[in-house]
Amino acid sequence: MKIVLQILGLAAILVGLLWIGQGIGLVRWPASSFMIDARPWALRGAILALVGVGLLVLARRRSL
Hints:
Elements (H helix, E strand, L loop, with lengths): L1 H22 L15 H25 L1
Helix pairs in contact: 1-2
């Protein structure tokens, strides 16, 4: 279960960072994405990244 939480947490952080980058216009990949320069996606990405951090913290506490 610990490994699953770590994988999900890391994936959530990475996707969240991508969404933040697209939402603020730093990442323009894929070029046809509707998320580019759309500020709500930056907020959603930040929330998703925080959820990912929470999952990593939860996974770490499971091992203690």
